[in-house]
Amino acid sequence: MDEYTLEVPDMTCEGCEIVITGAVAALPGVGRVDTDATTGRVTVHGDPSAKPRVRDAIEQAGYDVLE
What is the pTM of this model? Predict the structure, then answer.
């Protein structure tokens, strides 16, 4: 499984981690989601072709995603 990381600076607490994990984990092509509010990073283990859908899901949940 591949891994990629997205910067999500608005993720600042455990509640944010839970919301983002829930929004991303159910997407096709996503195997595992690791969120870390202290670094503002979301690491996704899965198919890299899912990255645009992951980004959209995080943004739909109300968070900005940096490249």
Answer: 0.94
pLDDT at 1 over 90: no
Q: What is the dihedral of CA 2, 18, 25, 41, to 10 degrees?
A: -20
Determine the 3-state secondary structure of 63 from DSSP. Answer: coil
49-53 long-range contacts (CB < 8 A, ≥24 apart) are: 51/4, 51/6, 53/27, 53/28, 53/29
Residue count of the chain: 67
CATH architecture observed for domain 2-61: 2-Layer Sandwich (3.30)
Q: Contact 62/16 with Cβ under 8 angstroms?
A: no
Given this model, what pLDDT does residue 18 score?
A: 98
Q: Tell me the percentage of the chain whose pLDDT exceeds 70.
A: 100
